[in-house]
Amino acid sequence: MTLSITLHLLASHPRASTFHPRLLPVLGEEGVSRLHRQLVARLLNLPPLGFSERIVWVDDELDEVLTALAEDNDWMVVGQPVGDLGERMRRIAALGLSESDAVVLIGQHCPMLDADYLTAACEALDHHHAVLGPTEDGRYVLLGLRQLDPRLFESMPWDSGHLLELTCERLQELDWQHGLLPALWVLDDPGHLPRLGRLGIKLGIA
């Protein structure tokens, strides 16, 4: 049986003062905002890949260019639910699972997350209850689920290098089979900037 899977992107308005604060001294406010837009646009331009629905969940309004890009690529743009990050993710996953067999949630700060990676996540959900896309610093950038339990989102250290480890422990406690995709890097440090050139992403240096 082919699973129906919905894709959910958690995105934010490109405010340099709120996101990528460690990049500000290198890129400046305009450079950080431009980079932020590029990262979101890369995800919005990904092919549909057979997802039954693709939704951008925004914590504020996207700018006009990104909103138009999302609509042109058949993404639905809606506001994020209330609550901390864990509660928002739980609510989004619950809504997705009420309308499809599985959900894939992704963040916006990983330049390496591409169509092949999403395809691998969907394939893993064929024979796992959950799949995680780890980051090099011990967190995760992708979460795929075929069922839901609030313990995956409660009292989690979202900005800690222990997030992935703790999530895997809770999946084991639930006796859920879970898969791990290859680890990716997340852009949140000036030391990561040289890697962007290999992806064709140009920077506006301050």
UniProtKB/TrEMBL annotation:
Look up the domain of life of the source.
Answer: Bacteria
**Organism of this sequence:** Metapseudomonas furukawaii
This protein's name? Glycosyltransferase
Q: Which Pfam families match?
A: DUF2064 (PF09837)
Q: Which InterPro entries match?
A: Nucleotide-diphossugar_trans (IPR029044), Trfase_1_rSAM/seldom-assoc (IPR018641)
